[in-house]
Amino acid sequence: MPLDSHSAALAELFAKARVTPLNEMNALQVREGSSKLRAMYGQGPEMGNVHDVLVHSGGATIEARLLVPRATPKALMVYFHGGGWVTGHIDDFDTLGRKLAERTGCAVLLVNYRLAPEARFPAAIDDGMNALQWAAAQGRELLGSDSLLPLIVAGDSAGGNIAAVVTRRARDEGQPHIAAQVLLYPVTDADFERPSYLDPNLQPLLTGEMMRWYWDHYLPDAAQRQHPDASPLLANDLSGLPPTLLITAEYDPLRDEGEAYAARLVGAGVPIQFERYPGQFHGFVSFVNVLPGSAAAIEHIGRFIEQRLAG
């Protein structure tokens, strides 16, 4: 189906505002442009508590923000934001995090993992693992919970890549236990020859050329992109992963690799809910209070987590 009317209008607005191609800009310029979108999302719902915390990751210290809903949290969700591993900040995703916390009943930990090119692969993965371990070890104490809360891993785009990798590594290392994962149009491979990469009609917002730019900043060595911690689709074994919700967008160069990952999870016997959202472009869930598709996806995530926690 065509882009829905709200998405089409937003894509046209961005197209008119875009002056310099992404591949002619540096990372700082792209980050500055991305940060200007914050005002568009408005304010998220009030939380019971908000804790800005520091997480040690190797020799670095990264920021994280724990959003605690007013009701007693049912679980702790560790959320990794998108932005091609180059852009994105927890302030950009604060409204989305609050919406997720309110709808799911989970406390949400937004992770400010290090960005490329200053910190290239595997820095974001290392930060993701350390944030996950922090959540498992200290999240309960910070939340004042007497019992061990279920741990959920989630992320969108490049953050979906990080979420998929750290979930698999937690399985391999035997801890922490992950109750579920939520992957929103995740990066799962560096194959630029998939049909969704080659069809310009599927790229109203994120383009294949942009993704090449992101990959070149994150992991310039093309051979290393075959590592399963860079391309989780290429992992040998995906069995034993937690129940998964995987959402793709119809208009997205990442659509085919996300759906290939969903197919591999099915083949590995992982319980999975998969849906391609028609008429939506890449990143639509982040446009909280702007796109109806975002509200629908947040509701979908809420239902999925309710089912998992009930089970």
Helix content: 25-40%
Specify the CATH homologous superfamily: Alpha/Beta hydrolase fold, catalytic domain
Give a count of the beta strands, DSSP E runs of length 2 or more.
8
Sequence stretches where pLDDT stays below 50 over 5 or more residues: none
How much strand? Answer: 15-25%
Report, as a whole number of angstroms, the end-to-end distance: 35 Å
Structural overview:
Helix 4 (94-104) packs across helix 10. It is built from 10 helices and 8 strands. The chain has 311 residues and is of the alpha/beta class. The model has no long low-confidence stretch (mean pLDDT 95).
In short:
It is globular and about 50 Å long. Helices cover 39% and strands 19% of the residues.
Topology:
Elements: H1 5-17, H2 27-35, H3 38-41, E1 49-57, E2 60-68, E3 75-80, H4 94-104, E4 106-112, H5 123-143, E5 151-156, H6 158-173, E6 180-184, H7 195-198, H8 208-218, E7 244-251, H9 255-267, E8 272-281, H10 292-310
Parallel strand pairs: 3-4, 3-5, 5-6, 6-7, 7-8
Antiparallel strand pairs: 1-2, 2-4
Helix pairs in contact: 4-10, 5-6
State the main characteristics.
alpha/beta, 311 residues, Rossmann fold, 8-stranded mixed β-sheet
